[in-house]
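Retry 2 of 3 after timeout on previous attempt. Resubmitting structure tokens to design endpoint.
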């Protein structure tokens, strides 16, 4: 039997984490939520998630810093970034480093699901 894909959700806003986790579970995936990039790096299980949805603006370890640390450690999996403060410079940097999507907050559930499904199917943006 195929293992249910695990989606890591990394956001410092508890409400956003809860709503994204609910959305992810509603379409049949397992959600693991982390309150920060540092929390993910310290507590994530040994297996990498199938995909990550991460906030860009977080204290201590920002989303793009988290991406850079994961890449440096040889950990590569699709990352969907979300931010309430879109920046073209940050968008270009994270996309060039392999991010799958860069979405503004708020984003529709349909848009998030589309990005997630494409990431899990291996679609290259």
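Retry 2 succeeded. Sequence:
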């Amino acid at each position: 039997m195929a293992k249910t894909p695990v989606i890591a959700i990394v956001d410092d806003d508890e409400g956003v984490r809860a709503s994204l986790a609910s959305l992810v579970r509603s379409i049949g995936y397992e959600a693991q939520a982390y309150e920060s990039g540092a929390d993910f790096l310290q507590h994530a299980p040994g297996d990498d998630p199938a995909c990550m949805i991460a906030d860009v603006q977080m204290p201590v370890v920002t989303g793009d810093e988290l991406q850079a640390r994961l890449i440096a450690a040889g950990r590569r999996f699709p990352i969907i970034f979300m931010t309430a403060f879109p920046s073209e410079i940050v968008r270009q940097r994270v996309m060039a480093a392999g991010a799958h999507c860069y979405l503004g907050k708020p984003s529709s559930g349909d848009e998030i699901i589309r990005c997630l499904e494409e990431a899990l199917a291996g679609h290259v943006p």
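Attempt log closed. The chain has five helices and five strands.
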